[in-house]
């Protein structure tokens, strides 16, 4: 697997990776609209968003992004690649990127579908089910271990 910075030319492939999970994330048509290619293009206009795609054999199979400094924004992997360690590779990559900013914690707004995955990565639920922007999510946080000399 190769993970590289995403570009505007990748939005159709990014949307295709996200599409199988949209119904798990949205609570209205406003939310569905947020995951369409024409809306995803706006992500690349925001300096604080760092977006990456994961490729296997030069085909985009996953995407992962964070908002500076430490909020995991997107983490999607095509279903046929689940359970093979690719998600773990993506997580280790994005965690390493985020850790360069030396955060005290990493946050994510999880779908019900992804709760167990994020728990495996060390996240804990820190809030109630929330609905915003046509999306429903559960706030989660991962404390980052700081080593004291």
UniProtKB/TrEMBL annotation:
One of its GO terms (molecular function) is acyltransferase activity, transferring groups other than amino-acyl groups. Residues 1-145 form the N-acetyltransferase domain. It comes from Acinetobacter amyesii. It holds the Pfam family Acetyltransf_10. This is GNAT family N-acetyltransferase. CDD domains: NAT_SF (cd04301). Keywords: Transferase.
